[in-house]
Write a structure and sequence with these properties.
alpha+beta; eight-stranded antiparallel β-sheet
Length: 225
């Protein structure tokens, strides 16, 4: 084969090789660059979220206590088991009646939740209430009335166990003022023969800056009737 012919055969290969190399380089750049950009983006979002609050409303614990106990009184009325339930706990065990407020700190949502650090000055107020000496028939009927009432008043019933050893109702509703959720859990325990309720308000900031469990220290619920 003459030199001229060999040159003609080899010449087209150079552009093809350069094109292949450029394609490989672009693929490598994308493989390295895209993950880096994603990581940088996540870091930026995380930093922004860490630097801003959660948007909880600022509500004094005493005001939130009025809201949660009012909600519990509504549920207590619907349960229809009668009697008075004074503040405190009678007897100090799981058989005893109870009517007490408690609080816990709130945690951020989103990427911030990975740090598992509480939101400073925040709290979620809850109301624990327990009716003693409730028979299975009474407990089942009370849970049925509560479920019907909650569904009719705009709550989302997320669980309703009406058979088996224990009976349970869970529901939640988005609060219109700040987008937080109220939650309700009511359980009839066969072993204890009690109807246990827990009513929880959405997260809020304590204006005093205390928040957390201490937000409920000086609070006492009214007698449920």
């Amino acid at each position: 084969m003459t030199n001229e012919l060999m040159d003609d055969v080899a010449a087209p290969r150079a552009p093809l090789l350069r094109s292949a190399l450029r394609g490989t380089f672009c693929l490598l750049l994308a493989a390295v660059g895209v993950p880096v950009l994603l990581v940088v983006g996540l870091v930026v979002v995380y930093a922004v979220e860490r630097g801003t609050g959660e948007g909880f409303p600022e509500v004094a614990p005493a005001v939130m206590a009025e809201r949660v106990t009012s909600r519990t009184q509504e549920l207590y009325d619907v349960a229809g088991l009668g009697g008075e339930l004074p503040a405190g706990q009678s007897g100090g065990d799981n058989h005893a009646a109870e009517n007490a407020l408690s609080a816990e700190v709130c945690y951020p949502d989103g990427l911030e939740s990975m740090a598992d650090e509480p939101e400073k000055g925040s709290y979620r107020l809850g109301h624990d209430w327990r009716i003693a000496d409730v028979s299975e028939a009474e407990g089942a009927a009370a849970l049925g009335r509560l479920r019907d009432h909650l569904e009719k008043t705009g709550w989302d019933v997320t669980a309703f166990r009406e058979s088996g050893t224990d009976r349970e109702l869970r529901a939640e509703r988005r609060d219109g003022s700040d987008g937080g959720r109220e939650r309700v859990v009511v359980t009839w325990w066969s072993y204890w023969r009690t109807l246990d309720g827990f009513t929880a308000m959405p997260c809020a900031y304590d204006p005093s800056g205390v928040g957390g469990e201490d937000a409920a220290d000086s609070l006492e619920p009214p007698t449920l009737r």
